[in-house]
Amino acid sequence: MKRSMWEDQKGVALVIALIMLLVLTLIGMSSISSSVFEAKISGNDRFGTAAFYAAKGGIDRGIAQLPSLTSFSDSIGDETYRSGRMTPGSPQPLAYLGAMGRPGYDINWEFRRYQINATGQSFGAMKEIEVQVSMGPYTSGTQYNN
Fold first, then answer.
1. How confident is the model over 56-76, as pLDDT tens digits?
2. Domain spans of the chain?
3. Exposed e or buried b per residue across 57-89, where buried means at least 16 C-beta atoms within 10 angstroms of its C-beta
4. How far is CA 69 from CA 5, 7, 18, 43, in A?
5. Whole-model pTM?
6. CA 143 to CA 146: how far, in whole Å?
């Protein structure tokens, strides 16, 4: 008498169950790895945003102190800001870019241009903002800085 192939396969259900368990374990490990990676990306984005707003605070302080060109640095909680670019570690002074005219004003009036660079830092993330500001009108050739 011939025996059926399925009659000799008594452990097939166990093998199939183990293969299914292995596949589900791999899917679970992949989703955990993906979740951890996404959490790291989210944290880096949060620190970058905090550094940007710290740099914006530096820009606001630089605008408030114009026409003084002195350098500055300060901290707000865990965030720090300073005048200047990202590369050097110490604050740098603001820059005076010269006088310029504006449409609608004759040559007796001038506007003074300044450049403000501020760098913000939060938990290792750094952001830099550069702004050019013009102030005026001033009478041409005067040293009036109000």
1. 999 999 999 999 999 999 988
2. 11-139
3. bbbebbeeeeeebeebeeeeeebbbbbbeeeee
4. 91, 92, 72, 35
5. 0.73
6. 9
